[in-house]
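Reviewer 2 asked us to include a model.

Predict the structure of this chain.
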Amino acid sequence: MGEHRETTALRYAAPRGMTAMAQRLLAAGAQPDGRLDEGQATPLMLASAQGDLDMMRLLLDRGASPRSVASRRADIIAPGPPAGTPDGTPLASAAHGGHLEAVRLLLEHGARPDPETREAAVRGARKPRPRDPGIRRGTPEDYRAIQELLEREGPA
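Predicted model (structure tokens):
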């Protein structure tokens, strides 16, 4: 990411629920894992952080990798405060946000939990509830279910 916080159009659309735009971009040749450098989150990581199942399915169906990795540096282009920022992998992003169905979807597509993913779920559960109603986060029950599901999936 450059000094002007450049991004790709698909990375812009993914965390904002712009599914129709994402469909057009992908049809025009946008790469489903497209990012400007390895430090940036992929569109799937950003959609996972929001728990946007429609966007996630679209990206996965078009070849986005559920096992992609981004460096841990800040990559904030999602709407809202840092509570929506990705956490290194699509699975960790979904776990941190408490998005149980998103976690299930990623596991079905081959994502595998690692210790950092499990820690992301714990950190997410400890965060205070956001005041902004536009930030979607799981309930305490969702976080418990995610932690149990990740433990059942075993080591990465």
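Residues 19 and 54 are 7 Å apart (CA to CA). The helical segments are 9-13, 19-27, 43-50, 53-61, 90-97, 100-108, 115-126, 140-153. We have added this to the supplementary material.
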